[in-house]
Specification:
This protein has about 425 residues and is of the alpha+beta class. The chain folds into two domains: about 1-50 and about 150-225 and about 370-413, FAD/NAD(P)-binding domain (3-Layer(bba) Sandwich); about 230-360, no CATH class. It contains ten helices and 21 strands. Strands 1, 2, 9, 10, 11, 12, 20 and 21 form an eight-stranded mixed sheet that branches. A four-stranded mixed sheet has the order 6-7-5-15.
């Protein structure tokens, strides 16, 4: 038996285990299950690796509440553990007159969120990165934005936790079905595992990332939401280019869209990634071709896309997605788009990088995208963490601390 069972071995699951281990008595037992052979195989291991500063998000959101602090906490964690981090900052660059107004709105939002930002001249921007280009005389400079190897950070945190004999991390283990979590009298959950074992837990936490909504639905949670997964496609340089690319360069995003636009980012080891262009994901783990297609998910997801296209309020967003993002699905079109904000030799980019999937949720009735994280304590003895999309990795450390405190306040631990 375990006191706390956490499902999901990405950044959110690992950081929740860390925070609860600090909040609970030393004798409390915590078990984390991950269905893949290794941790961080999906969202946490396929993101951009960017520690976001936190200026894109409305001030009342959990994203704004935790992003700035999360960037600082992960930076400190890397420094304490000697893990690679590239403190290169980020420029946000408009491509036309229309984008200038929204760029200034982003700047004001960042200041409201307490983020360290500067509005600098184009000449000052080129002192940071001589290859940057764009429209207008001013760009946003975000000095605290950094880049890490997110998969390495999750691995290191798991190694930290393994020093505690009361924390067990099991990989390659899943449920027999999503409906195998049963509440019994006495307040215990009994979970049938693929290993043939049955695990009993006093408290169950769903941090399953791309699979979290399916798991929640099986428990009667999150029934007002459905999937709207978005696949991000990148190209990566054939060789290290950090002698040319000095910072991250982002466009001004489409107002109201969930994606930040095709941009250039550095990796900790000096390569350059460009993307992501946004494409439909026809299943929750459909990274390429027919890989991991589940036909029930395909029908459901395609139905949502179709309904949104014919919905008055959402048609504009879907149309922007179809006309502006989907046409960029080749390496040539990705680099052509980035070349509007950064000079480059496009022949340096001849290969794709592994794609990621944003497990975005949409409201079933209104078809509006849900723009913040969701914590659902409705079921006794259960917590469901949903819609942990970008900047979920950046937010994960303070977000996990918040969960531990909330569980204490509610008398759950």
């Amino acid at each position: 038996m375990t006191d706390i069972l956490i499902v999901g071995g990405g950044a959110v699951g690992i950081t929740i285990a860390r925070s609860l281990s600090r909040a609970l008595p030393p004798s409390a037992k915590i078990t984390l299950l991950e269905k893949e052979p290794t941790l961080s195989e999906h969202t946490s291991g396929r993101n951009s690796g960017v520690l976001h500063a936190g200026f894109y998000y409305s001030s009342e959101s959990m994203k704004a509440q935790f992003c700035r602090v999360g960037c600082q906490m992960w930076t400190e964690y890397c420094e304490e553990r000697g893990l690679p981090i590239r403190k290169c900052g980020k420029l946000v660059v408009p491509k036309n007159e229309i984008e200038i107004e929204y760029m200034h709105d982003l700047y004001k939002q960042g200041l409201k969120n307490g983020v360290k930002l500067e509005m600098i001249t184009a000449e000052e921007a080129r002192k940071i990165d001589p290859m940057v280009k764009g429209y207008g005389k001013e760009f946003i400079w975000s000095p605290t934005t950094s880049v890490v190897n997110s998969k390495a950070l999750v691995k290191q945190m798991a190694e930290d936790l393994s020093q505690n004999p009361n924390i067990e991390i099991k990989t390659g283990v899943s449920f027999i079905s999503d409906k195998s979590i049963l509440s019994h009298t006495g307040g215990l959950h009994s979970i049938a595992l693929s290993s043939g074992d049955t695990l009993q837990a006093k408290y169950f936490i769903n941090a399953a990332g791309q699979q979290s909504l399916s798991l929640a639905h099986a428990q009667g949670i999150g029934l007002d939401f459905d999937f709207f997964p978005l696949k991000g496609i990148y190209t990566i340089s054939d060789q290290k280019l950090d002698h040319i690319y000095k910072t991250l360069v982002y466009p001004v995003p489409i107002r109201g869209a969930p994606f930040l636009g095709v941009h250039s980012t550095l990796t900790v080891d000096g390569y350059v990634k460009m993307g992501p262009t946004v494409a439909p994901a026809f299943s929750l783990e459909n990274y390429s071709g027919l890989e991991n297609l589940r036909w029930g998910e395909v029908a459901n997801i395609m139905g949502n896309y179709t309904r949104m296209l014919f919905n008055g309020e959402q048609r504009k967003l879907i149309w922007a997605f179809i006309t502006q993002e989907m046409p960029k699905m080749s390496i040539g079109k990705i680099t052509r788009d980035v070349s509007q904000i950064h000079k480059m030799n496009r022949s340096d980019f001849t290969r794709f990088y592994r794609p990621g999937i944003r497990a975005q949720l949409v409201h079933k009735n209104t078809l509006k995208l849900h723009n913040d994280f969701i914590l659902d304590f409705s079921n006794k003895g259960q917590l469901h963490v949903l819609n942990l999309v970008s900047p979920g990795f950046t937010c994960s450390l303070p977000f996990a601390d918040h969960i531990a405190k909330e569980m204490q306040v509610q008398g759950l631990i």
